[in-house]
Specification:
The complex is a heterotrimer. By secondary structure, chain A is mostly helical. Helix content of chain A is about 75%, strand content about 0%. Chain A has 14 helices and 2 strands. A two-stranded antiparallel sheet of chain A has the order 1-2. In chain A, strand 1 and strand 2 form a beta hairpin. In chain B, helix 1 crosses helix 12 and helix 3 packs parallel to helix 7. Chain B is mainly α. Chain C has a domain of about 180 residues: D-Maltodextrin-Binding Protein, domain 2 (3-Layer(aba) Sandwich), CATH 3.40.190. In chain C, strands 1, 2, 3, 4, 7, 8, 9, 10 and 11 form a 9-stranded mixed beta sheet that branches. Chain C has a two-stranded antiparallel sheet with strand order 5-6. The chains are: A mainly alpha, B mainly alpha, C alpha/beta. At the B-C interface, loops of B face helix 3, helix 11 and helix 18 of C.
């Protein structure tokens, strides 16, 4: 029995790695090639003339090109600014979302509220409209409130996406937590707020960590609003920068290099967060009261 | 101050205040505005902006030769993409729920596709699937499995590959959410199953599924929502082509608004999209709740 | 030659030597000093704009544009806080620019295209430039400039007799680029087609030799300037503008089932069915399209002539030094692909701001204040883009490109192409863009067989009719 299971697991992992990594390997591959080599038919699976020039050039340095024997200047795209701005915006969005969506999710999941269903419908409904339809009103609002071209406007826009979504996700999560633990803590003398902070939230840490991570990623990867609100300004985030690389004479290799660099921050956040997603702690209320 | 007894309702409302504020202001206004837009023929290039009632919708359903095609393609894409993503997510979650060496590393790896924006995924896959310079066709050709370089994005199958790219990007989301829920299942249930000599399928049906029912609904509806409203992936990967074979409604709404400047018409298409997304979501909801 | 010790150098000789050395140094210093780059002598109480000027551009070489602008700021000694700003927009440039103009965002210079020029001039967002006069800030009179432009530019960008900008680039889209290495292999060097029909005949011959998978890479890719332009230009090259559009505004359609337009689509379907073109062309974007030809696996590509620069660049192409271009013999090739710098009607201008904006326009589209084709030459050298006929005659430009291209005579071929290039009449009508978008989704259907050729032509004609009538 055990052997069979082990084999299934190994095959499963192998397939999973293949599925996940092949496109990513391809991205890495191109990012280390010169442009002329990237367009070879059939394609090269490994760079014949590997180079760091794409990375250097996207960060604003010049690099020597072996194929043409010339030094190529910096790629002229604000990749550095994009990387930093994206990281700042995404982290802010993640933190604020967690702060607002956690209690909101708790309320929706736990407490009996009149008109709860109506609010639930509103929550879901507000997200079905494709971003395309709301772009113009948002741009107009943004211009009038001075939100265009700076980081705050974008953070607010992203919050409008993440908070309803995360509240809805957390709702189910909180509802599935054992209510006895909570009740026990109330009996032991916690008031509602203390129960929430010291008992419920620690128990729900995996879910909360999950939505923190999700919010970060949604914000970091968001393209449409970032493009409308920050493109062409110093507050530009990474996705519009990548888009502008593509739209004219797409410099595929530079874009691949920029993409790879853009993966660094999400990977770090993922590594940090996924630890919390896995550790499930059922908190013993008694030990909390004795402080 | 907080020790004063608040009723359940009042406490709940207090916590919900910021949410309600955000909801109404940020989502309500554009919703109302775009609905109003859909009732006009606002068109920048023609300079029109008159109220025309439901004429846009009428034209859409009865006069537009592309509508039926877009509808078909949207349904094809949404259903295929949702099911593949969800099943993939479920499979990954079940696999990662098992204890084995290197689990942490694999977990981090699996999360990677979700760290790509749809935009990056589209660019990556368009090059990955390219006929002459792409990885996949080059691999098959070099291994001698095919005699010529294959074109994957054909009229019949382009949409399937778009669905695959979408699933590649989004499956980790479902996987991790389901995994978090799997971890909540008490250990003794599994121990009991072992004693009772339950096989894999019985374990899945009687222990895991009840715990996963609600999260599965969440993920199905989320994936559905994302796939129906996805326009960027189509825009970059196939541009609606070849011809109109991947022209989903969301992409079409975008094209009408920002390429044709017909914002009113584009808004109308968006609202039809909302209707479709809601209907499909409700269908999933009922199917899964009926699964006993 | 040093004399060995023992020879005494007399004092006089020594002094002579010293004088000669010092004299030589002084003369050398004076000559060197006078040959240095002209210093910018700041105007002692010179005017500066009251705010930063703003130029919006697309995604093409923003680095080059920024360097050009930096030179302008240097020439005028514009202080740090008033430096001209360059904003690079992504996505469809016309749409993005129009969004900004419509929202009243502060802009001084933007790029404009024939169809956009009409809409934007009517909306009052861009200003006519015919009356620009020389002042102490504006270096040149517009009357001097207008005579030096390519005539087709004046034709394409005038609305109601008024010109609305100066050329950013003038090029011919729809020429035939060749892979001379492959052609030599097939024994067809110098055997160029002279008409579109001949091109297909030669492609058929080449296909039978089975040297590569696909002999032809046509301009059928999925961009607004891809497959729709390919169709229009192939028709008007063979039948003139009258084969597509009426002579007068609003330039309604003259093509129909049973005319040259249907012939062209039949030629296309023939090429498609025979497997002379890669079927993935329909989903390609411009980058893929360029990269494909650069792999060196095609004989011919239908593209813009300025991509000769790209295809002959060893950093980007495998056929560097081997890509040439087919000269026009019996018919012109391609259509006018160009853009201009337009002067935007910015609302918050004060004092001399308008003149500075006009000076910037002239700097970009003509000469800098020292009489050099600064921007024009840079674009020609860096990206093989042409602006004015005089730039292509510059010896420096000819030397540099003569070395990179397959042969220096290709420069003359390009000049010839540009002198007879046509602009589709309907581009001057505002309804064209919508029709172009429809054509972009309709035309592929004829190729894939999802619709018959007659149906597609009929749809295109009906739509053109409908759109041109409603204006």
């Amino acid at each position: 029995m055990v052997n069979k299971k082990k084999i299934v697991i190994i095959i499963g992992c192998f397939l999973l790695i293949l599925w996940t990594l092949t496109p990513i390997y391809w991205l890495f591959n191109i990012s280390f090639m010169y442009h002329a080599e990237a367009y070879t038919s059939p394609a090269h699976f490994f760079p014949e003339k590997p180079t760091l020039s794409n990375y250097l050039r996207s960060l604003g340095f010049s690099a020597y090109n072996e194929l043409s024997g010339q030094v190529e200047g910096p790629a002229g795209y604000p990749v550095k600014e994009g990387l930093i701005n994206s990281a700042i915006v995404a982290i802010a969005v993640a933190i604020i979302t967690v702060i607002i969506a956690s209690p909101a999710g708790y309320v929706m999941g736990r407490l009996r509220l009149p008109h709860k269903n109506l609010l639930l419908l509103l929550l879901l409904g507000s997200r079905t409209l494709p971003p395309v339809a709301v772009l113009i009103p948002f741009y107009v609002i943004g211009l009038k409130l001075g939100l265009v071209g700076n980081i705050f406007g974008l953070i607010i826009m992203h919050l409008s996406i993440t908070i309803p979504l995360m509240t809805w996700i957390l709702m189910g999560f909180f509802a599935s937590l054992p209510i006895e633990v909570e009740r026990a803590s109330r009996i032991d003398g916690c008031n509602r707020l203390q129960s929430l902070l010291y008992v419920v939230f620690p128990m729900a840490l995996p879910g909360i960590a999950a939505i923190g991570l999700l919010s970060f990623l949604i914000s970091y990867n968001e393209f449409l609003f970032a493009w409308i609100f920050t493109q062409g300004t110093p507050a530009v985030t990474l996705q519009p920068v990548l888009a502008s690389m593509w739209f004219m004479i797409g410099e595929l290799n530079i874009m691949a290099a920029a993409n790879v660099m853009g993966l660094i921050v999400p990977i770090i956040i993922c590594i940090l967060f996924q630890k919390y997603i896995m550790k499930l702690r059922i908190v013993d209320p008694v030990s909390i009261v004795i402080r | 101050m907080f020790t004063k007894r608040l009723t359940d309702t009042q406490f709940g409302l207090l916590l919900l205040l910021p949410l309600i504020f955000l909801l109404f202001f940020l989502n309500g206004y554009p919703l109302v505005y775009s609905f109003w837009l859909s009732l006009t023929n606002y068109d920048i290039s023609r300079g029109t902006s008159d109220f025309i009632g439901f004429l846009n919708y009428y034209n859409l359903f009865f006069n537009d030769p592309y509508f039926l095609n877009s509808l078909r393609v949207t349904l094809h894409f949404a259903i295929e993409a949702t099911i593949i993503s969800t099943l993939l997510g479920l499979g990954i979650a079940l696999l990662l729920n098992e204890n084995f060496r290197g689990r942490g590393l694999i977990r981090t790896l699996v999360l990677l596709p979700w760290a790509f924006s749809t935009y990056a995924v589209a660019t990556l896959f368009r090059y990955f699937l390219a006929q002459n310079v792409g990885f996949l066709s080059s691999l098959l050709y070099s291994l001698g499995l095919t005699k010529e370089m294959i074109n994957f994005l054909t009229v019949e199958h382009a949409i399937d590959f778009v669905a695959l790219a979408f699933a590649w990007n989004i499956a980790p989301l479902g996987a991790f959410f389901l995994l978090a829920n799997l971890q909540v299942i008490p250990e003794d249930l599994f121990r009991q199953a072992k004693i009772d000599r339950a096989n894999v399928f019985q374990r899945f049906r009687y222990i895991i599924l009840p715990f996963l029912k609600h999260p599965l609904i969440v993920i199905l509806i989320l994936n559905n929502l994302f796939s129906v409203t996805e326009a960027t992936l189509i825009l970059i990967l196939t541009g609606g082509g070849p011809g109109v074979s991947t022209q989903v409604l969301s992409y079409w709404a975008f094209a009408q608004s920002f390429i044709n400047y017909s914002f009113g018409y584009g808004a109308a298409i968006s609202w039809v999209l909302v209707l479709i997304a809601t209907i499909i979501g409700l269908i999933y909801f009922f199917i899964v709740t009926k699964l006993k | 030659m040093k004399k060995m010790s023992g020879e005494k150098i007399s004092r006089r000789r020594y002094l002579e030597l010293m004088a000669a050395t010092v004299g030589g140094l002084v003369i050398g210093g004076v000559v060197g000093y006078s040959l240095r780059k002209p210093e910018v002598i700041p105007l002692p109480s010179g005017p500066i704009p009251s705010h930063s000027m703003i130029m919006i551009i697309g995604g093409f070489r923003p680095d080059v544009v920024r360097e050009n602008i930096a030179e302008f700021d240097r020439e005028w000694n514009i202080p740090m806080d008033k430096r001209t700003e360059v904003q690079s927009l992504s996505g469809d440039l016309t749409v993005a620019t129009e969004t900004k103009l419509a929202a009243g965002a502060p802009v001084d210079i933007c790029y404009s295209y024939p169809y956009a020029t009409i809409t934007w001039s009517k909306a009052g967002w861009i200003l006519p430039i015919d009356d620009i006069k020389k002042t102490d800030i504006v270096p040149y009179d517009m009357s001097e400039i207008k005579g030096k432009l390519y005539p087709v530019v004046v034709d394409a960008y005038s609305v109601g007799g008024k010109l609305y900008g100066l050329p950013y680039y003038v090029s011919d889209y729809g020429c035939i680029l060749t892979n001379e290495e492959l052609l030599a292999k097939a024994g067809m060097s110098d055997d160029y087609p002279t008409t579109w029909k001949e091109l297909y005949e030669k492609v058929e011959v080449l296909a039978k030799k089975h040297i590569v998978d696909y002999p032809l890479l046509p301009s059928w890719y999925n961009e607004p300037f891809g497959i729709p332009w390919a169709f229009v230009l192939e028709v008007i090259n063979q039948g003139g503008n009258e084969a597509m559009w009426a002579k007068e505004y609003p330039y309604g359609p003259t093509f129909d089932v049973g005319t040259l337009a249907e012939e062209v689509l039949k030629d296309w379907k023939n090429a498609w069915d025979n497997g002379w073109v890669p079927k993935s062309i329909l989903t390609m974007k411009q980058t893929d399209f360029l990269g494909e030809f650069a792999t060196g696996k095609y004989f011919y590509q239908v593209n813009a002539e300025y991509y000769l620069g790209y295809m002959n660049d060893p950093a980007r192409s495998k056929i560097a030094g081997k890509c040439s271009i087919v000269p026009p013999k019996k018919q012109p090739w391609g259509l006018l692909d160009s853009a201009i710098y337009s002067l935007v009607n910015r609302k918050d201008r004060k004092d001399k701001d308008l003149e500075f904006a006009q000076a910037l326009l002239e700097f970009l589209g003509y000469k800098n204040r020292y009489g050099q084709y600064y921007v024009g030459k840079r674009w020609a050298i860096l990206e093989f883009l042409k602006t004015m006929p005089e730039v292509l005659e510059d010896p420096e430009v000819r030397a540099i490109w003569g070395a990179k291209l397959y042969r220096v005579e290709d420069l003359d071929t390009v000049n010839k192409l540009l002198s007879i290039v046509q602009i589709p009449l309907a581009w001057k009508a505002p309804w064209y863009t919508k029709w172009n978008t429809i054509a972009q989704s309709e035309l592929p259907l004829a190729l894939t067989g999802q619709k018959s050729i007659k149906e597609v032509i009929k749809t295109l004609r009906d739509k053109a009719e409908e759109l041109s009538k409603s204006g």
